[in-house]
Amino acid sequence: MKRYAVVGTGHRCQMFLDAIGSDHRDEATLAALIDTNPGRIAVHLDRMAEEFGVDPASIATGGPEDLEKIIAEQKIDRVIVTTPDYTHADIIVRSLEAGADVVSEKPLTIDAASAQAIAEAVERTGRDVVVTFNYRYSPRNSALKEVIQSGEIGQVTSVAFEWVLDTAHGADYFRRWHRDKKNSGGLLIHKASHHFDLVNWWIDDVPARVYAAGGVKFYGAENADARGLGPRSPRGTHDGPHSPYELDLRTDPRLEKLYLEQEHYDGYLRDQDVFAPGVTTEDNLSVVVTYAGGPSLSYSLNAHSPWEGYRVAVNGTEGRAELTVVERSGVLFADDHVTVLDPSFTADESADPLRPTGERLLVQKHFGRAEERAITAVGPGGHGGGDRLLLQDVFAGPGEDPLGRPSDWGDGVNAIAVGICGNVSLAEGRPVTPEELSLPIRR
Is the dihedral of CA 10, 15, 21, 26 positive or negative? Predict the structure, then answer.
């Protein structure tokens, strides 16, 4: 039975706490919760007691400054890191040095210097760092990996990958701490590291050269003023003119408890206006990546699309594989109410004959007809049961996996390498290589 400390008690940690309290309670013990905000810690302590019967007195608490002390006194085996991205490297390195292994949410970190610090700490301590890339475990992404790995479409020559975030999900990055690029490295690192990890894993290669373009083209005060947007409520929790981009924390008991009721501790606002000043994170991005083995990637990200999902096409010497995923077919706004059209709604509510939700994997060999491949959910839970498989690997330990889905710090570095190089490319207007930034790419 391993003893865990969770650092960061925002919404992101809930998946891990639920796993410790239920499916993996025979393998893991929650020994500590660490955060700068004691109110959020208290919310999770109450929830663990109410839902899983965990005695709050058995869980040590403290701030980040108490990390080493808690690791030593509580005999912590593993630290789970779910804090804002810019804090990851410091917590990871300190945890390794204090004698604990680490499980980190993506991204591993946000810049080259901190990536190198993590690599050196791993080598120095001999301890493990797991990065939780749950998209690998989603059945649709695993199915595409199987096609590529089988050699059915031959040697991969290029990948085209488009990811669109809708005006419900995409806007949320501009309400939170992510809106300031210095906190997350921007969406090119925070969000797209998932996507770059998928490509690295799908084609079993590493990035060698990156050229990026993009900017803040939709959110932020300057764009709002240029489009002549009228008065808006500065926060969703305040009365005033309503907007489809507004978040009212009072309508979500979970978010209200975690954030609205706890903001007096640290002043953190979870529901900022997406068109207020201070947005530096790009909302439109395009990247061209050359891989060490020869393939190229054309990638784009849009954070204000009317629908949400992604399209990926993998070209090979023997054919082509195409994966199309529509996670939500639209976002509607009427009578001051936002309705998101996704599979959780009834057929009548979510039906859209022009853009139905769902997923489709097509494989077409040269001189042959296209064939649709079945994508089967592996069980209940997020990402078609993929989250459950990820948590099984995290808490019970990975077993034999022909697809190689478990990931570590090296995969984490390779995933953020595109974003880190891309950010330099955005700033300097030139192609950038991981080598010139001394990124510890693992081949």
Answer: negative
